[in-house]
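Weekly puzzle thread! Below is a chain. First person to post its structure in token form gets bragging rights.
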Amino acid sequence: VFKNAQIPVHEIIHDINLEPNHIYIMPENNTLTTIDGVLQLKRNTRNERQTNTIDLFFESLSQVYKSYLIGILLFSESIFDGVFGFKKIKEFGGVTILQNPNSEGIKNVSQNVIAIYDADFVIKSADIPAELLQIQEKLTINKAYNEEENLPNQEQEILNRIIQLILLNTANDF
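Winning reply:
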């Protein structure tokens, strides 16, 4: 990934702020979450072997970025890690892309396993960058995406949005 990517690639070694058009790689035996756009890395202890680190990561991202999130999953040894996270991404309106294991020579992955992910796209890993560009173009044309748009990261702004939603849905004015 480091050699072939045309955008910056970062291996996460400590907490790091997310930036658009960057690739972040999580080291092995760690759990990664995001809070207010900051990737937070936590080393797993010997007694705390997480088997659902991708699920936890996708869930935390989907809660922050909602429909702006595009989750990409490449198959690994932990074949079911990511199923729950993909469902969370879709629940919040994001897009999911799954590597097609059959086109990559990965064995022992049945069509039933692929179907469990319920991914929006199941494609060869080599086709993922082009698909990402198409998704971004479609979202930009439909005015559903704008890189200059900031997601709320200030507590006061979030509180104001919550109060507005309560007012709209219940007519209670605080």
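Puzzle host: Confirmed. Bonus trivia for everyone else. The chain has five helices and eight strands.
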